[in-house]
Amino acid sequence: MFKVNHHYTKKDVKKIIGLPEHIVRANSTYYDYGYPQYNGIFYFYVNLGAAGTTGHDYPNELRDDGMLFWTAPKKTRIQQPKMKEIISKDFTKLLFVRYDNRSDFVYMGNLILNEVVQEEFPVILTFQLIKVDAEFEINHYLDAEEVFKRKTSEYYAKNKHKLYHDLRTAPEKPLSKTVTTNYYFRSSSLKSYVNNRAKGYCELCKTPAPFKRYDGSPYLELHHIIQLSDQGVDKVYNCVALCPNCHRELHYGELSELKEKNITRILYQSLLDDENFTQEDLNQFIEYHDYKESE
Question: What is the DSSP letter of 138?
Fold first, then answer.
């Protein structure tokens, strides 16, 4: 159990929740950074007013009224699985704080989601802190896949009759609701030009388009290096043609930042090879992306 205002090291936490000894002794495991999750509980390690041991300095704030303003890493989006779990009521969130990167953490209590302030790049959330001791049953350590298999089989065994009934009585058409969103009316000429420049190949992985459209043209997707939602421009020097896999990875993949830098370099080379692109156009690209040829 954890008691409010008591001090704990990360090794203390790992030992208390029942992780195996080799993980308890190690210093750089999944359970030592940020906000690990184990057996349905997230452990938020939050530095207030100081950078963490990795050098990241997030503008987190815990107010006197118990409201926590929490900022996730810069590449996070609310649609990512881990972010969905954090905002879900199905997962418990426990808060540990410190005011420098050397001291032990202090257990503060349970976090209840208050508001999603920002949905992406980065996700920013507010929580209400409930100062309560944490008591829970320690389970023997299982790897994630085994936990999933056991939970799934146990749930099915207990609920198979209910599941069958739900399937029989489920509506043929799923429920829907109307939402408001912004739609960008993009230039069809720009899309045609970029697709023609790609010559039927993804400009990142260089593989052929996965299929052809009904009109026989190769299917590639237009990607804005700086997104329109981030005030990016709908211009040739900000657009590339990608296969669906690369396009999704640039938006949601764990290596998206590295690959985004790579696609900027690839686009620069494509523009150099484009006989229709002038030096003035090239200068626009360099200035817009703050690009250096050594990249």
Answer: P
